[in-house]
Structures are given as structure tokens and as C-alpha cells.
Design a protein that fits this description.
Elements lengths: L12 E2 L4 H27 L3 H26 L3 E3 L16 E4 L5 E3 L5 E5 L6 E5 L6 E6 L6 H20 L9 H8 L10 H6 L3 H9 L1
Antiparallel strand pairs: 1-2, 2-3, 3-4, 5-6, 6-7
Helix pairs in contact: 1-2, 3-4, 3-6
Length: 213
């Protein structure tokens, strides 16, 4: 078990290891592998030292960016139980979601959706339930800005909670149950979105949360 998964119950599966997430991870790796070939070809074609030096610099820039993108994807901070629809096992057992806090603790997600609110004391954002009391689940990240990666993470997390509730036949107070079922379950049937689509997170649940943030 990696340090990232430490404390997570053994039967839970981190998001990046779910079938669709693995597909996207492989596509991400392939895309950047192709991008890395270009500088190598540049070195072979333009053999002069100044040009090769520039091309090598581009190679390392792409390598660093590629690794960071892949690393962030692998550490998307939530996990699902084997019965969750993201696992595509067609199980009748209750579906659950666990969320990883900034300090490494894994906490069971409540019945609500979540949003990020700046912490006035600590640097970063707290994960807060969207309910009448805005219950704080915990300190989620020390990032100072709500960047595209955080927005994507929140969209994926809330979609996983919508899928969980649909599986458990829990009434969804955020969206009409019929619309939720047709839209969110569609995530399991269509191709995984690219990076720009992930930021918008397609479905109406994520769009509403994005507006609230």
C-alpha cells in the first residue's frame, strides 16, 4: 500500500484505479509520450549544439509537466467501495465513498454534496457539506487558489456521490432523480472527458457547484 492510501480500508479502491479513471490515465500517459517524441526527433534532425540544447530544455519541460499531470491524477483524493457504480461490477451491496483530507486521514463521505471554502486560520480550503449548517468535514488542501485541478477534483467527487446515491436509491435533493440517473450514469457509458471537459465536469450537478464556488 502506498503512503497515499495509508489508512484507507482495504476493500476501498482509490478513484484513479477505477476502470474509467485507468483508461484516462493510460490516455494521458500515451498523449505525453507522443509529445516527448517530438523533442527527440528534433535532436536527431537538428544536430547542432545550440538547437539541441533548446530541444533538450523543451524535453525536460514537457517531462516535468507530464509527470505532474499524471501524479495529480493518480492522487485524486477520494475512494469508492467495490459496489460503487464507478467499479462497474453491478453489485447490490450499499455503495460508499471515502475522502482523503490534507493530513492524510480518510473520512467517510456524508449524505450531502461538498464545496470548498477558504479557511480563515489555516492556509487553503476546508471541505464543507452543502446543507443548512455548512458542516465542515475537514481541511482539504493547503492550496491558496481554487485552480482547475481542484475544480476537477470537486466535480468528480460530487459526481461520485451522485452515483452512490443513485445506486443506494437515496433521493437526490440537488437534482431531480430521473435527470440525475440519465446524466450521471451516462459517465459509465461514454468516453472519459479530456482535461478541458474535466474542468467543466459536464453534468448539471458539477455546473451548479462550480457556480457556488
Amino acid at each position: 500500500m502506498s503512503q497515499f492510501e495509508e489508512g484507507l480500508p482495504s476493500h476501498f479502491v482509490v478513484f484513479s484505479q477505477t476502470p474509467k479513471a485507468q483508461e484516462h490515465g493510460r490516455a494521458l500517459f500515451l498523449r505525453f509520450s507522443i509529445f516527448l517524441i517530438v523533442p527527440v526527433l528534433g535532436i536527431l534532425v537538428f544536430g547542432s549544439f545550440p538547437v539541441s540544447l533548446v530541444v533538450i530544455g523543451v524535453f525536460f519541460l514537457i517531462s516535468g509537466f507530464s509527470y505532474q499531470q499524471w501524479h495529480d491524477w493518480q492522487r485524486t483524493p477520494f475512494a469508492v467501495s467495490p459496489s460503487h457504480p464507478m467499479m462497474e461490477l453491478d453489485s447490490d451491496k450499499e455503495s460508499e465513498v471515502m475522502i482523503r483530507m490534507h493530513d492524510g486521514r480518510w473520512l467517510k463521505a456524508g449524505n450531502d454534496r461538498y464545496r470548498l471554502i477558504k479557511d480563515d486560520v489555516l492556509s487553503g480550503y476546508n471541505l464543507v457539506a452543502i446543507n443548512d449548517d455548512y458542516t465542515i468535514l475537514g481541511h482539504f488542501t493547503d492550496k491558496k487558489t481554487l485552480d482547475a485541478n481542484l475544480r476537477r477534483t470537486m466535480a468528480l467527487l460530487n459526481q461520485s456521490l451522485a452515483l452512490r446515491d443513485a445506486h443506494n436509491e437515496i433521493e437526490d435533493e440537488i437534482e431531480d432523480a430521473r435527470k440525475r440517473e440519465s446524466i450521471d450514469y451516462g459517465l459509465l457509458d461514454r468516453d472519459w472527458p479530456d482535461e478541458s471537459e474535466m474542468e467543466d465536469a459536464s453534468g448539471p450537478i458539477a455546473k451548479r457547484l462550480k457556480r457556488q464556488e
